[in-house]
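> tool_call: predict_assembly(chains=two)
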Amino acid sequence: MDALQDIFLSLSSLSHLELMLGLLITATVIVALQDWRLGLWALLAQYVLVSLLLVRVMPPRVALVKVIVGGLVCAILYLTARHMHWGREAPIKKGYHEAPPLPVLRDVFTMNLAFRLFVALLAAMVTYTLGTRYPFVEQPQGVSQACYWLVAMGLLTTMLTTDPFRVGLGLLTFEAGFEVLFATLEKSLSVAALLGVVNFLIALAIAYVTTAQLAVLTEEER
Amino acid sequence: MMNLTLLIFIPLAAAVLVYLLRRYWTIAVFVSLGTTLALAAICTQVPLEEPAHLLGRELVLDDLSRFILIFLFSLASLMILYAWQVPQGWGFCPSLLATLGLLSGAMMIRTFLIAVILLEMAGLILVFMIHGRRPASVGAALGYIVPIVVAMPCLLLASWLMDAYPLQPDNLLLVRFTIIALSLGFGILLAVVPFHSWLPAVAAEAPAMTSASLICIFSLASLALLLSVLNSHLWLMSGVNSLSVLSMAGLLTAVVGGVLAFAQRQPGRLLAYAAISDLGFILVGLGTGSVTGVAGALAHAINRSLLVLLVAVSLGTLRIYLNEGSVSTLREALRRTPGSITGYALGGLALGGFPLFNGFATRWLIYRSMAGINPLYQWALLLAGAGVVVGYLRSLFMMLKPSPERGAEREPLLVTAITLSLAALCLLLGLAPGLLVEPLLNMVQGMTIIGGG
């Protein structure tokens, strides 16, 4: 725990600009790229960056709790993805794993990479303007922008997909954005812990729905 | 001496135990049933207004919270008993118990911030009920999770704004923002129009007891929390009057719910729209800010839960028989599923406010509390109720279409007994509404919400 805290504190010397740039990249990866591994890594990095941003407004140990919660959330989602056998070339031939592959969703508009990147760019411009003109809190710098950015990207990710796993990534991003704001308003450990449990429950719910999707497809196949 | 924290931790611990016992269904059911009955007994024994502490925050059980909690535990007992006969999926009993524990905490804790987080947790745990014995569509589950997650920040923001109010009591903008945040948050959680679309989607796909848990238990606890917020923050009634926001939202919800119920043919969605329309009546009653209106609204919320449970129990059984194609004519239906067909017909009529039933009795109180308000509103509410009644009559006739297959078993005797007992209780409360309204009238007398403070 102490070693983890030392690493965490050494990273906290990053400037708010570097942290914002990091959040810009991670949220864009979540909204724009379809690969679940990249999405999960981006989510984990996002939890770390958000916690580093929060070190300026709350005790480091409380901020570290958020990193640990993020790690657990990503572990749950990773195990779910493995359970679904995503990313394995040779399907297992027996029993449960004979389920058909997930269908490709055909949307009204082609929401391809270019479209998603364009939307992310627009969102970045809007949230930067909002965060600068109407900041929730003046200090520390970057908190309002980060909050607007993560909330917007979380909602966008949720709206642009019907895949439960990706909706989950969006919801967790939305939640992280809100926690950035709320941490500046309410700094108690009990609230941080309860919000951590909420994150954990969201991840479990998403894991449950993602797994159930397989059962739905299997039944439809029959 | 009984401690209030028992009401939170016993169901949470029992939920873990029941989850582990899920393969031994009968044992799991009886552990769950024992837990809910024990909780109801504990609730009657704990001293009122004597605080306990959780996470450094005060827990208090007042008269109204105790009444509602005992009611919720009793409803949960009936649901569990029904699930014993008509299984609702492995997740039902543990999720219900965990939800009950968290909702008890949300209703007792004095800090709104923590109450909101506990409510959100309870809402998220209900997700594990959505897939019953057969998987529901992923869209329904996601359509539930997303609004639940989005509602929490609105309410947390409202809690922060409410804490900030004493520092800036003249700030009208702050009051407006608080009301907006509260309206959004509770609007989503309660499925108030236009944030209602998640409830019909879930009710169409999920097992009947999941819909019942959402409407009868989660929604009632959310309403209690809303009332407690309005009651403890008098300033919400100044400047921008939150009571008029409640009234208008209620009117819109009742009318839209009634119209959509009239047009609906899918029984699960019909139940959801009927419940949404009924919620509108409750909000209108609360919005009047009179003793009659608030007591009527609370009594109607209790009646709504009873009626929704009655219809859900009936629908859950009928779904099985419909799938097997055995219910073909009214005579056949009355022979094989006497409880369910009676419960469905009576519950549907009562949900629409048909005379003689409890739904009508408490609606009447709400109509009376609206004296002096535009009579057009009363007519609109009356028509909303008629929409629900017509929707149910049509649904009943559609269920009884001739079917080529015969020979399914009769519904279990326990299910018949549960359904008919619920129907009898609804009739009794309709004929003698004072049994429910009188104690509630005494409880709301001292509320600051009365007369807009």
